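User: Hey, quick favor. My workstation is busy. Could you predict this chain's structure for me?
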Amino acid sequence: MAVAEPATAAFAAAAPSRRGVTRPLSVAPMMDRTDRHFRALLRRITRRTLLYSEMITAGAVLHGDRDHLLGHAPEERPLALQLGGDDPAELAACARIAEAWGYDEVNLNVGCPSDRVQKGRFGACLMAEPERVAAAVAAMRGACALPVTVKHRIGIDELDRYEDMERFVAVVAAAGCDRFSVHARKAWLSGLSPKENRSVPPLRYAEVYRLKREHPELAIEINGGVADLAAAAEHLDHVDAVMIGRAAYDDPYLFATADARFFADPAPPPTRREVAEGLIDYAAGQVARGALLKHVARHALGLFAGRPGARAWKRHLAENAHREGAGAEVLRQAMEKVPAHVLAERPAV
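Assistant: No problem, here it is.
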């Protein structure tokens, strides 16, 4: 009898069942971007899309200010906590905490290529250690009832053949990983900055499609360079889910039709006025609790991207939201600089 290739054997050992339901659309975890204030803005645009925290290290979860790091409002759900780390016991403890704090999913970062992350022995460098990632996934699954997922690159450095990615996925799938979110670019762990690693290595969508085609039993999500919902719909012909990153931050209103288009939600898309009014109410509540307006307003700069009035909106917020004592009225003043017909637009589904 022929001996199975390592990847084939590992896939054969993978648990067939998955926890939870894979949502077809998500907004990628982004450092200094996907905090609770940005998530509050997005929830006024899309109620169904899966949102993520910023990446939080296991050490910070275990020893830091959990209310500051993990706190969220019920309206932010469905919400995933992304963790950075490589110690299975620590990550298992974090998974238990994530469940206790009301998260809907826990995700392990195996994609970030920054020097700081590598020195902590987590992020993209872990693609070279699939057995360690598998041990972490198994430990997290044993510690909670939440879906446990992994976000990773298509490869790193010279370990970037399709077969290398397939072996990584096979080993981790055997530990019960519930979904693989694949950034369809390799990462260079030296020579490129994290910013350059988001754009310089070419996109290789076909290899992510192939992974799903050859392993239909796995939940596969694609990430990288997805600019709008039309592109997301095209990807869904080949994979289970699509993750949108920077485009979601630069133009959050592009998600206005997401609920109807991808989740069959009959509610009409919100107008930008409705989104802005909701954000004003949210900002007023946050400022009353001691938050600074600038920490809320900075995430809304792209709300009118590409529409008349966008420049005036951004300028007013940039010039006034940081001022001492600034309140939600700054957002209202900025909204008044946008033409009424733009505020009233409701996109067609």
